[in-house]
Amino acid sequence: MSVRCICVVMQLAARGQCVKTAEEANRTEPEVNTAKDSSMALPEFLGKAELLKQGAEARVYRAQFLGKPTIVKERFKKQYRHPVLDEKLTHRRTVQEVRSILRCRRAGISAPVVYFVDYTSHCIFLEEITGSATVRDHITSAQQPDSCPDPQLERLAQRVGQILAKMHDEDVIHGDLTTSNMLLRLSPEDGESDLVLIDFGLSYISALPEDKGVDLYVLEKAFLSTHPNTEALFEKLLKSYAASSKKSSAVIKKLDEVRLRGRKRSMVG
Amino acid sequence: MQLTHVLELYPDHSVTQMLFKEVKNAAELRQKAVEGKIYAALINPTMLVNPLQVLVAANKAVHLQKIGKMKTRSLYSEIIFNLSPTNNISEAFKRFGISDGDDSVMVVLVHNKQESKLLSDITALVDGRQVQVEDVSSLSDPAKIKKLYKVTPQEEKSSTLLDAVVCRMATKDVM
Amino acid sequence: MTVVIGFEGSANKIGIGIIRDGEVLSNPRRTYITPPGQGFLPSDTARHHRAIILTVLKEALEQAGLKPADIDCVAYTKGPGMGAPLVTVALVARTVAQLWGKPLLGVNHCIGHIEMGRLITKANNPTVLYVSGGNTQVIAYSERRYRIFGETIDIAVGNCLDRFARVIKISNDPSPGYNIEQMAKKGSQYVELPYTVKGMDVSFSGILSYIEEAANKMLSSGQCTAEDLCFSLQETVFSMLVEITERAMAHCGSQEVLIVGGVGCNLRLQEMMGVMCKERGAKLFATDERFCIDNGAMIAQAGWEMFRSGQVTELEDSWITQRYRTDEVEVTWRN
């Protein structure tokens, strides 16, 4: 071994125990590092997985991964976009999604565990939340035809308000709040089911009340268009949000502004 | 006894975990590894919650090796580095690698399917008693793990320690 | 047989068109064009419209070969738009309706675009992208309303393009948007610009303020050409529009897209939307500049639908309004 080689080995040895010379590494490490090899791995894997849905942004698959039921979210290339824009946007959204999930989890909000992220193919491998139903389905099936106040639904609205307040207090903007992106996971004990937020695909970090207000506005529009005659229920949600968040008054003010903005904007042309 | 898992993304690669207790030659093993004579990752099992934690680290290591983007010099050092919640390489080795006085070791190998000789070669080197890999949870030091991974009290209530650990491992590149 | 005459003048275009049972009999139009670097102001625009409106009215009747007696209904743009020009045109519509003894109909400008688009393209139930200097909305019909699924939370895309044109002094003839489109074809370098989509909504004020500030610096430093900026701006804002349209389509389960409004003339936008549609197996519908850009016939067409479903605007209700949401109108002519 040359002197330089020895120095390198000693540096590595100082850092830890898995040191080998280059020759030995080549001999025994079971890798064949060809470009073809690495770029085919994921497409092959996804080819065998079960495609759950193809959204505008991404394809969602179900598969077994590391022995766990896993959801793989693949952000595919959008052909209509300029390739540089597409790559930047896709990468940014993958990173933002992953960051938002961890931030929420750290704050005690249930969100799927991230198992692995492949930044070359923009795939996120996430825990599959099994044994759950969407809040959307829950509300649709529980809704009374005479729109009588339902204490169960009101409790649900209250919980959603609380969880969103917690999320916004962490400065996480979900970006795509709908009742389809909230799951109720039946808990093993006989307690209240676990409210899980999913699909952080358009999420980002922001402290601006404006962004939080828009986040709520997006939910309001989605909520009211999906569940007719639920204005009172949504009001309950907002009240719960306002009571639970430390920064809610500025946010609600912005929500009111955004609601009016659509009506007050001077439209010409 | 040992646990072998075929990586779904790289089906030519299997990850085998072997857990040993009452290990008497930790110092010798560490030295051998430093000299490049052991083709495995030697991990301190008190930092492990569950074998899944190792699989997550190994999968990421193999993936990064394939695309030529490892942060460390070898696959096995990469596995150890991936266990760590931070991006500091020497800290990773210090916390997750074995130390001379350790009396338990988790040995992790990445190999092709038919390599039983490789496994027996390694087993022969360890002066200790091999136990079920699942037993690692009895060796875990949850307080130490929580502290290192900075698991928050709120998170503990809404999630499992394993989930908290795995999530941080998977996302540390962008946090 | 129902013949409707429509009066449109909510922005800088003044148009009068006549429709008879789905046939466009005439559709003359004039555009008030300002010098490069300037936008159009309400009072100047109103003055322009006043000066030319009777000429255009005469053209509309002559080209259609009709007399006032042949008209069944007088439709005009009630809003939204600029106050002074809207008043100018409404005044003439009201006068003419009284002179000719015909019923009056106040039409929502956005709905005019939608109904014209549906007529010309025969799209069945499309997701509509309405993009112009004053509006940016993604609309889908549901239960007697044109519901707004996504929109701009600040300025319209056309407004963004127009104001960018002013910054680098692009000519307003025939329109700033058209000239940006031609220049963009010669651009090649993609310059990274802010991209803002929030849920189903878009925001253009960020990219506008960025480019207003940076454009001249980038040009004088030789970092890129004006053509590159036009190209990059189009690629970015159009991507945002295609994205929110696609999201609305996914939400509604729609397989058709209709682009209306002045910005809808842009062939690059149509091309990008077409690529997205093809990937989804959806169909794209678009009209040409006769009907994309504000015109009288679109008001006549919407008026025709409204009139046939029994609507009429009483004189005391025939005011105009600068703010008029697309979803405020009850679409009585569809199921």
From TrEMBL, chain A:
Residues 46-269 form the Protein kinase domain. Its EC number is 2.7.11.1. One of its GO terms (cellular component) is cytosol. Keywords: ATP-binding, Hydrolase, Kinase, Nucleotide-binding, Nucleus, Phosphoprotein, Serine/threonine-protein kinase, Transferase, tRNA processing. One of its GO terms (biological process) is tRNA threonylcarbamoyladenosine metabolic process. One of its GO terms (molecular function) is hydrolase activity. The keyword Nucleus applies. It is found in: Nucleus. It catalyses: L-seryl-[protein] + ATP = O-phospho-L-seryl-[protein] + ADP + H(+); L-threonyl-[protein] + ATP = O-phospho-L-threonyl-[protein] + ADP + H(+). It holds the Pfam family Kdo. SUPFAM superfamilies: Protein kinase-like (PK-like). It comes from the Eukaryota. Belongs to the protein kinase superfamily. BUD32 family. Component of the EKC/KEOPS complex that is required for the formation of a threonylcarbamoyl group on adenosine at position 37 (t(6)A37) in tRNAs that read codons beginning with adenine. The complex is probably involved in the transfer of the threonylcarbamoyl moiety of threonylcarbamoyl-AMP (TC-AMP) to the N6 group of A37. TP53RK has ATPase activity in the context of the EKC/KEOPS complex and likely plays a supporting role to the catalytic subunit OSGEP. Atypical protein kinase that phosphorylates 'Ser-15' of p53/TP53 protein and may therefore participate in its activation. PANTHER family: EKC_KEOPS COMPLEX SUBUNIT TP53RK (PTHR12209:SF0), NON-SPECIFIC SERINE/THREONINE PROTEIN KINASE (PTHR12209). Component of the EKC/KEOPS complex composed of at least GON7, TP53RK, TPRKB, OSGEP and LAGE3; the whole complex dimerizes. This is non-specific serine/threonine protein kinase. The lineage of its organism: Eukaryota, Metazoa, Chordata, Craniata, Vertebrata.
UniProtKB/TrEMBL annotation, chain B:
GO terms for cellular component: cytosol; EKC/KEOPS complex; nucleus. The keyword tRNA processing applies. InterPro entries: CGI121/TPRKB (IPR013926), CGI121/TPRKB_sf (IPR036504). Keywords: Cytoplasm, Nucleus, tRNA processing. One of its GO terms (biological process) is tRNA threonylcarbamoyladenosine modification. Pfam families: CGI-121 (PF08617). Gene3D superfamilies: CGI121/TPRKB. It is found in: Cytoplasm, Cytosol; Nucleus. Belongs to the CGI121/TPRKB family. This is EKC/KEOPS complex subunit TPRKB. It comes from Scomber scombrus.
TrEMBL record, chain C:
Substrate binds at Y130, V131, S132, G133, G134, D162, G177, E181, N266. Residues 29-300 form the Gcp-like domain. CDD domains: ASKHA_NBD_OSGEP_like_euk. GO terms for cellular component: cytoplasm; EKC/KEOPS complex; nucleus. Binds 1 divalent metal cation per subunit. The keyword Phosphoprotein does not apply. It is an enzyme of class 2 (transferase). GO terms for biological process: tRNA threonylcarbamoyladenosine modification. A divalent metal cation binds at H109, H113, Y130, D294. Transmembrane segments: none annotated. Its cofactor is a divalent metal cation. Pfam families: TsaD. It catalyses: L-threonylcarbamoyladenylate + adenosine(37) in tRNA = N(6)-L-threonylcarbamoyladenosine(37) in tRNA + AMP + H(+). Keywords: Acyltransferase, Cytoplasm, Metal-binding, Nucleus, Transferase, tRNA processing. HAMAP family: Kae1. Belongs to the KAE1 / TsaD family. This is N(6)-L-threonylcarbamoyladenine synthase. It comes from Scomber scombrus (Atlantic mackerel).
